[in-house]
Design a protein that fits this description.
InterPro entries: ConA-like_dom_sf. This protein is mostly beta strands. Helix 1 (3-14) packs antiparallel against helix 3 (219-229).
Length: 672
């Protein structure tokens, strides 16, 4: 006797002596068995035979509704959720927007939910226990006239709701599997704008052996059925991961690729195989990732796949967030490689400050509004420089109110809460004199950062060997991100409307670790933001980013070399020193277009207060790809003592020179 026959025998055994008037079953052996409409439902090996895969985004299964329900109704199924929806997702429902019918499903925490409508009012029973995600569970719902609803998890009664009124079963309503027929607002939505948006709540995962009957089994028989199948608690799905763990170390550079997430999510994207960008290093497991799932908001990733980011420019002055988080489909946000040589990588990221309905901040009659360009210049030592350029006709008149350039954010992989990725002593600051302070989130966010007075250096204490740091202007001030956590879930703020999520929301608190989520620790905005005004109504801000295995005080020389770079003296003719560009972390030198690139001799006047911590030069009008470098009289070997990148443009050519040199004394360099 095969398993399918055994199950059929058990199902017969659960019926009472009188034959069932209603007995609809779906064994999901194939999708052609449906008598209605089925879209984007696949098959995989299930509890018995095959199961149906509902992708959480586009799967539909609709049939004619069940008629003739009188006094009892029993629904059962085996489910293995890949994640939970943002509110109640139906396993099966037969209802309409006129508050008629019934639903059996799970909510945003995986709790079983059964709803029947009585006189237009819902009677809803919710279990305290949750069906675990990734694993098989047997779930069931029983309704009996005069008694109400009872819920079962793996054959055990877990919750009941007594009521005596007779429900309206809505015989004319369609029966839908894997999607709630009434759109809803995600639970724990924060803002008015997002609360006004309703979304489809879909089941994401596997469903098998669904049955609807008017005969309710006795408890022992139901338990026997579940036990005999032997699949309750068996894990059949793997936790999805934001992609980066499989990116190998390799030659330094920027690479186009397509970083994939779940099949259902990937099938939404109308993109090619070159949609994302990764920057990697030969001698470090750290990676920079520019991925669609974050809206291309760049992340720096540790050796154990913990992602750290700093989000995009944002304006929240209207009470609604205008930022890349709102651009779920990357309609405005895009990324491209400008340079990728052994000496450095330059990535251009362009985006609009967009709301969740694709509207642009301060969009005018021409269709233009607030846009941003960011240039990420990344060197072989793993340190990146972020140059933010805001294009806005309104920043000055608003005096920066509502604009935010910086927000320290951690991504939480599915299966993890913030406290799984962050130590409670989560952040440490240092000023340029080396005064430090640490802050804990053990009892929630700190009230404020009381010291040091300025926080130009910060180190995030993630649970990894490589920890992310940021360096800012010497007089940088930031504040605590002091809202956004759900008591009992985490003492850190945590939201899962971004990354990855496709719901239109600018704020949804996480209550379960089933999805990717993010945690915010600090932000800098308003009149404390340090910036420069550029031409044509632009605003410029800079930041240094990287990862380190060392204590925060070891970052002081790097911070000083960038905030107070040593002077450079050029000897000889044919070259003009153009200064140090903090937005590139590079010294700029321009050669005479008419010369033949005579030897360039220079001295970097390093000192304790203005040290050298690896040096980059950009030499314009350099006409030869070959190059020789001497450092303090010793010839440097290409690939070890220096790296170079020759770049030809429409108008001229340049060479980027990278020297892995540290010093607090003057350094003499010859280039020819």
């Amino acid at each position: 006797m095969n398993k399918k026959t055994v199950l059929a025998t058990l199902l017969v055994g659960v019926s009472l002596s009188i034959s069932a008037q209603i007995n609809r079953t779906w064994d999901f052996e194939n999708t052609t068995q449906a008598v209605g409409e089925v879209k984007n439902v696949a098959n995989v090996p299930g509890v018995v035979g095959n199961a149906a895969v509902f992708d959480g985004y586009t799967s539909d299964w609709e049939e004619k509704g069940i008629a003739g329900v009188q006094k009892t109704l029993f629904v059962e199924a085996w489910i293995a959720p890949l994640d939970y929806s943002f509110n109640v997702s139906a396993i099966v429902n037969q209802q309409n927007e006129q508050n008629q019918g019934f639903l059996f499903g799970i909510n945003h925490n995986g709790q079983l939910v059964a709803t029947f409508y009585v006189g237009g009012e819902p009677k809803t029973c919710v279990s305290e226990e949750s069906a675990p995600w990734l694993k098989w569970s047997h779930v069931a719902m029983a309704y009996e006239e005069g008694k109400g609803i009872q819920l079962f998890l793996n054959g055990v009664a877990v919750k009941s709701l007594p009521f005596t009124e007779k429900p309206d079963f809505c015989a004319d309503c369609p029966l839908v599997i894997g999607k709630t027929q009434i759109m809803d607002t995600p639970a724990y939505t924060e803002r008015t704008t997002s609360r006004a948006v309703k979304s489809w709540m879909r089941f994401n995962g596997w469903i098998d052996e669904l049955r609807i009957t008017d005969k309710i089994p006795v408890a022992k028989t139901l338990q026997k059925q579940v036990t005999s199948i032997g699949k309750a608690g068996v894990q059949v799905l793997e936790t999805p991961q934001m992609p980066s763990a499989d990116i190998p170390q390799g030659p330094f550079g920027a690479y186009y690729t397509r970083l994939r997430y779940t099949d259902g999510w990937e099938n939404l994207w109308k993109v090619s195989d070159h949609a994302d960008v990764v920057v990697r290093f030969p001698d470090s497991p750290v990676k920079y990732v520019f991925w669609r799932g974050t809206g291309y908001i760049p992340a720096i990733v540790s050796e154990n796949n913990i992602w750290m980011t700093d989000q995009s420019l944002e304006n929240w002055g209207s009470g609604e967030c205008y930022e890349v988080m709102g651009d779920k489909q990357c309609r405005y946000s895009h990324v491209r490689i400008i340079e990728s040589t052994p000496a450095r990588v330059v990535i251009h990221w362009r985006y609009a400050l967009a709301g969740i309905h694709h509207q642009i901040m301060y969009e005018d009659a021409t269709g233009w509004g607030d846009w941003a360009d960011e240039y990420w210049t990344i060197y072989p030592d793993g340190v990146g420089i972020r140059k933010q350029i805001l294009h806005s006709d309104h920043y000055k008149e608003d005096q920066g109110v509502g604009y935010q350039f910086q927000e320290t954010i951690l991504f939480n992989q599915p299966g993890t809460k913030p406290q799984d990725n962050l130590n409670m002593e989560a952040i440490q600051f240092s000023d340029m004199e080396g005064h430090t302070a640490s802050y804990s989130w053990e009892k929630g966010a700190p009230e404020k950062f009381t010291g040091p007075a300025f926080q130009p250096i910060q180190l995030i204490n993630i649970k990894a060997k490589y920890k992310p740091f940021s360096i800012f202007s010497p007089d940088r001030i930031c504040k605590v991100f002091d809202f956004g956590w759900v008591e009992g879930y985490s003492t850190f703020p945590c939201w899962n409307h971004w990354p990855v999520s496709q719901i239109r929301s600018d704020g949804r608190n996480a209550t379960s670790p089933d999805k990717p989520s993010h945690t915010s620790l600090t932000d800098t905005s308003g009149d404390v933001q340090i910036l420069e005004y550029g031409p044509n109504n632009t605003v410029l801000v800079r930041q240094m980013i990287g990862m380190t295995t060392e204590p925060i005080k070891t970052l002081l020389p790097l911070a000083r070399s960038w905030n107070n770079p040593p002077a450079v003296k050029i000897e000889g003719k044919g070259y003009e020193y153009k200064g140090y560009d903090k937005y590139q972390r590079a010294y700029l030198i321009e050669g005479d277009k008419t010369n033949s690139n005579e030897s360039l001799q220079l001295t970097v006047q390093a000192s304790e207060s203005a040290p050298v911590q690896n040096i980059a030069f950009v030499i314009e009008n350099w006409n030869h790809q070959s190059i020789e470098v001497t450092i303090d009289g010793k010839k440097a070997e290409s690939g070890k003592g220096f790296e170079s990148g020759y770049i030809q443009t429409l108008e001229s050519s340049k060479i980027v020179l990278w020297l892995p040199v540290t010093s607090v004394r003057p350094v003499s360099i010859t280039v020819k």
